[in-house]
Batch of 3 targets.
Target 1
Amino acid sequence: VKVSEIGEFKLVDLISKIVNSTRTTDVPWQNLLTGIGDDCAAWKGDTSIQLATVDALVEGIHFNFDFCTWEDLGWKALAINLSDIAAMGGVPRYALVSLGIPGDTDIKNVTAFYRGFTRCAKQFATAVVGGDTDAVPRVSATVTVLGSMGEQVNLLARGNARPGDLIAVTGCPGTAAAGFRMLTRGINMGKTASKQLSQAFLRPLPRIAEGQILVKTGVRSGIDISDGLLSDLRHICKASHTGAVINAENLPINNSVARYFKEDAVSLALSGGEDYELLFTAPPEIMLKAERQLACPVTVIGTITREKGKIFVSYNGKRLEPQVEGWEHFKSK
Amino acid sequence: VKVSEIGEFKLVDLISKIVNSTRTTDVPWQNLLTGIGDDCAAWKGDTSIQLATVDALVEGIHFNFDFCTWEDLGWKALAINLSDIAAMGGVPRYALVSLGIPGDTDIKNVTAFYRGFTRCAKQFATAVVGGDTDAVPRVSATVTVLGSMGEQVNLLARGNARPGDLIAVTGCPGTAAAGFRMLTRGINMGKTASKQLSQAFLRPLPRIAEGQILVKTGVRSGIDISDGLLSDLRHICKASHTGAVINAENLPINNSVARYFKEDAVSLALSGGEDYELLFTAPPEIMLKAERQLACPVTVIGTITREKGKIFVSYNGKRLEPQVEGWEHFKSK
């Protein structure tokens, strides 16, 4: 059986099973809180919970240099990993990068990559402490970020959603995917709109402060919507043994996306991916507190239900069960 | 200027300069002990020194499936990172792996990869806690290992060698390179020799226990010889502002390597690379203690000198200044 036949998510399940079958009584395993299958790995450190995440960007798969500069790449390679720390409610601390580049790469491009990477690191108070370089035919950047929960003893975990929880999202999902479509299809729009959309795709801002506020407010269930809102909601429902209903009319749509992508806007918001916004669930009273505490736009878009694995979208008075849900490696759709 | 024109080591210097120019007063930077340029990054954790390292294996660059099985690859991808923890004298704790594979990869190969990876993890008491999978044309495994110095407050650092220190090496350098040559050139030898040499290349054993013993014994300067003995000795000399003399007659050569590679044995030992043995330096009295404490073969092979950057090899009564020194990405030799 080929990997492309089972798809990324089943592959991760398989890997998770193999790895968990090899657990031992050694200290690191005993201290582990969350292994493969959440945004970050998490374990009990000496005095606080420690977090670690790794994510790669590969030329031709996740980006290409037709529209992405080396500086964009550096920024994004770090930002998507910081977003995983944000999705646990953690504080990022240290970053390592394994950079694969062809031998004929100009060193000014390498410099631009690290300019983008270190700017992002600076903005989110992360120290760049190590790495590795390799000569490879296609550019790839594999980044590890280590973080901590500080004084917090709870995580934004995927498995903590409960029936009756409200579902909310930060920012405007679909904006990054609209930016990608604009860049790849050469869609013309006003300067401001164009900048906003390309920034959303090329220079995502991880919701670091927001994730920490959510944890402090008592929110226990969250994820970043890098795979697409529905796809990541499915991760939450699966880990929490619940279902969900999304009210598509409530989805917050960026003005420029609404204007230039009209009917596609809702589908971009549901399945676009690459937004690095936070999707989280909480009982109504905690949700109210979270909405008050967060400085960024936050919108309640649905409810967690008891129907295991069932995700419905209510739209134009209809209740739909969506099929195509978002980004997945390997599987053709 | 192209990366291939400056080579890997100058590229790392360049990256190190860019990154260090962006240091801030943020907590992670303040706690940092060792950034880019040693075997691991190291920083002050809440109660002990924390370590992190990342290293990638790429198909066609570091291995190919003509002689390397998927299980070998899994083992080695983790082992080479554990070796970086060993080279600081640390205790490995957690591993994350970013695995890039083509979509048409059979899942039994993925299973074999994780079998090798988790076996190595188990043997060295490391928990496999996270990762990432990507669809890419060529197989690559980028591994991060996190570790700790436990109760130790000193590291095996590259910059701590002092003139007058003796230089020693564990095991028999050149064995892995001989194994690689045997596998790629199809050299016939006895079953035992063949197994020993291929294991040295495909299933290296990181010197985890040995690194910890060295630190406890008071050794402060060390590195693993993954790039080749001379090349890694140069890293030590550069960071310590010293020179070195190696007595080639003293180099410990594996019996099978001596038998099947005769005159090449010394050059394999000096420049072969991929051995994952430890090279370390210490004043004579500490070296004596270290030799007594270590259970593995350990051989004194030279002395650290005052002549900055000068590395000499004494061989057959001659004092040579070697040119080709070992593995380096990007640069053609």
Target 2
Amino acid sequence: MTIKNFSVEKKMKFYFAGSIRGAEDKEILEQNHELITYLNSIGTVLTEHVGDINISGTGQEIPDKQIHDRDMRWIEESNAVIANVSIASLGVGYEIRRCIELNKPTLCLYKCQSKKLSAMIAGSSVPVRSYENVSDAIEIIYEFLSGIK
Amino acid sequence: MTIKNFSVEKKMKFYFAGSIRGAEDKEILEQNHELITYLNSIGTVLTEHVGDINISGTGQEIPDKQIHDRDMRWIEESNAVIANVSIASLGVGYEIRRCIELNKPTLCLYKCQSKKLSAMIAGSSVPVRSYENVSDAIEIIYEFLSGIK
């Protein structure tokens, strides 16, 4: 794979969506952290805190409206959105719908062996791809980003 | 309370949003069932299956796209949306954002003692009210519906 060349061609901004407050599944949280590290190597991830294991559970210590408005702004600013939909999350569902409104290039990643995915996501216009491990997920992300003009 | 008079004045259609597939919390599921029964006494609930304990866990046996498109249509058709946001859910988050897009009268109900609510919901423009039990929640719904023109 020519990931390095890819990063030279485009300096993209990414919005990575994943469960924070509800994330009891440490495996998914660690995978998100690794995926964000990968995305940061080829562009800039606006939502780096999603992969921060220290803030999960309690969430971020800024007012909710500020978090909401900032995240809505970041979605607009981003070139692409990658959402890990392996964990049920009100916030991630909300963000995905916002992406559809904005016609933002969006990819949903879903860990195999997770529970059956919500029909609202699986039946929406956003592509959902299942992955088994991080390198698998990176291949999927790479393929998705290569298709964005 | 003059609930009966209320039902005579308006025959409203309601969209009730709540976690289905992810709902392991039977208490919330039973509360949803009771709230839907109440709403059906004053109008029509389009999403009656949300309170159906038999389909939770596995979800409905129709294709995801069909569920998605039907639910999006039902949101548009409804006069008001009541969402129970006590359980993390991609679908409910997605539906709430759709309500905001449509400027649909929407109320989020949140059970006290539930985990901290997602900042995307708590910080959005949709009102969130916490409740302790079903009769409490019914009072909140009644007050909310009375305010809809």
Target 3
Amino acid sequence: MRTIMSGVDGVKALLFDVFGTVVDWRSSVIREGQQLAQRQGWPADKVDWPQFADTWRREGYTQAMRRVARGEAPWVRVDVLHRQMLDRLIEQHGLQDLDEAARDSFNRVWHRLQPWPDSVPGLIRLKRRYVISPLSNGNVALLTNMAKHAGLPWDCILSAELFGAFKPDPAVYLKAADILGLQPQEVMMVAAHRGDLEASERCGLHTAYVRRPFEHGTEPRLEDVSPNQFDFQADSFEDLAIQLGL
Amino acid sequence: MRTIMSGVDGVKALLFDVFGTVVDWRSSVIREGQQLAQRQGWPADKVDWPQFADTWRREGYTQAMRRVARGEAPWVRVDVLHRQMLDRLIEQHGLQDLDEAARDSFNRVWHRLQPWPDSVPGLIRLKRRYVISPLSNGNVALLTNMAKHAGLPWDCILSAELFGAFKPDPAVYLKAADILGLQPQEVMMVAAHRGDLEASERCGLHTAYVRRPFEHGTEPRLEDVSPNQFDFQADSFEDLAIQLGL
């Protein structure tokens, strides 16, 4: 890890992974699932919402994305991937009484994810010096609606959608820097996930790892990151702002 | 013109033309030109800055864009078009003492254009109900830097650059609606220019004409728009917000 500001003097933009790094997707999906169950009058034990959320994320997003990366499936919006998996989960859990409007609305829970408590105040501080933008596999509409809902003060919305690929494809990081009129070394990727940061690093971007121990549940779990890996390691966006001298 | 809110109940996003509609490009370029002349120690009559600004805009942007639209030139970023024209103007005016750093910096005056006085307060009001975004031929970096500089509270940054075309190509309007996850009729284009609005209308978007009589100088000049043309006609973004019941 470098000392404060050294090595990142030329950085002009910070790009943020979103799911897990900026927003707490798991708690948000669980909460809305529980509210939906109540509205529908389902018995409390009909759905295990933490497990539902984890499966939706793992199979509807992570695994679907890998199939696209391997060329086994064409690129489609994350909204579509989420919906395909939601329809399967509805089948599996016997929730077929959900009508089209309710399915569409529940699928948009991913547009309404709640930020971690430090996300908005941290971003406001970081925005004073840097151009701040998401760089997510989430599509533009999802990221735009999420920002409006959660008050995320982005300077612009960059999505892998704009480049027709998904992270960790190098094209996503390189084209994001280019569209901002910047060299890769003028950009720093901020993420809670090692793979995203390692791919950024291979493209010449700077990197900041932010620990999000509760992304996957109330039992703290951290990525396997060594102490000197990446330009910065922080416990929150506010901690990162302090380390950057803001 | 429709009465308040009728016919636009389904509108979810407002897309804004930028040069002339949101920002006063002419005064901004003149002012920075005069400051540059002073720094360089040029005699006060060496450059007619209003004329310089007009030529830069007309030949470096409007005409260059038409060549791209006619297929006579490949699509390139507006930053590049502006720079090509700036280099020609530098030749014509005998300003070759400007070094590369000064040329690059002056070319970025288009990233630092000043908003009209009602732009920021009007956008803040309109943002309460609508997704607000630029839809400009200016490139993403230009629009992002401009927003940061001028405090434009966009929800996202949409540029013709994302679609590899320039307005008034229908693809730009249709793809902008699509990337927001909206139908054309859920989007309203806001512009000070008839051609932009007519092209939007042909794509099924709603339209709001905002009068900017001083875009081209201190002598007021308006577009040739008939009284009932477009869904709304307004004197400012704040006037538009009022007409929309905000």
